Amino acid sequence: MSTEDIRRSGSGPEAETETPDASGAQPGSGQAVWLVARREMVTRVRSKAFLFGTLGMVVAILLIAAVPMVAGLLFGGDGGARVAAAPQVRPILQQAVEGSADSPGSPIEAAQWQGRAQAEEAVRAGELDAALVSGEDGPVMLVDGTPDPALARALDEAYARHSTAEALQGSGADTSTVQQAMSASVGVDTLGGAGDTQAFLARMVVGYALTFLLYLSILTFGVYVAQGVVEEKASRVVELMLAAVRPWQLLFGKVLGIGALGLAQVGVVLVAGVGVAALTDYLSDLPVSFTLLAISLVAWFVLGYLFFATMLAASASLVSRQEDVQSAIQPVILIIAVPLVVTMMTITGGGGVAVDVLAVLPPFSPFMMPMRLAMGEAALWQNVLALAILAAALAGMVWLAARIYSGAVLGTGGKIKAKDAFRAGSR
User: Which domain of life is it from (predicted)?
Assistant: First the structure.
């Protein structure tokens, strides 16, 4: 069918629908889009691919969370923490040692004090888990990296008991003094950069997870849209549907219906992620709250999916056979894949101003910004600016995709050229 035939068939964006509903009135634009979207949701939600895909993502989140726990069980040591204490704070360590002996956790072993310089070197070398020294505001625990929570808690409790005893002896049991002493805690002074390294790795893992979740969700549901477009063309179902709705209504109904399922899947995965975050301290090193990251992820999925899905739908409408879908949408898939590669290459913050500019521009922003936000390399205003630019680009993409889809959706036979479909869609 030529583009002139397409035009005469009434498939352009200005064509009126010809079949009214049962009451004799044609459905409004919103109702028509909703009817198409509901059809897509009902059809797709029952598919095994959607159900098993959602279950697989949740299982993957749980497995990722279980890896550190399993590694700790398999490779963690059974011995207690070795701590050396300066003479001024040795009574505190002694109380912690005595307290650990009566607790179900790992015991604390008091190591011989050789001096502060030697203690710091032993901590860095891993020979000591911590060293307890005297600071200006009280005892300070020297560690290499992130302190062991159980050890820190044991020393805090021992310091509180020691301070309470001193307060009772020296203040005549003054209530305020005793309460102040009870709230005392041991400070932490990190030696070396191991703590920064651990925080960087935690942020990188979260950033990777968010970016790949976006990539897989956008690509998967975008391809569903493309396949659905060609299925309807190949089976001639689209001709029946266009008797009741306009081409652009059919396009947006399909995109929104499948996108709603994608958003539901992303929501399920985020709920699983929140559950994991509540059970572990894995997200404690993030520069922003997990709630902000989740809100950002949803916003990027919605805009990113709509941007790429409309592009995929327009590309798929140019062909009429399932065998030709892959070649038709391959350029769009490359447009989706290249930003992911760039995101992975710039994860360490290299590239300077060029990367900062690239991160706020489509099609790179849907993948670069969530990663940079998780890594602490982008401010919140940059994230908002990038979302606004993507929303503006989406408006242009919707107009272009609607023109191409309207001009090509009824075309059969060989592949239609995009410029011919664009011209036919404008008539």
Answer: Bacteria
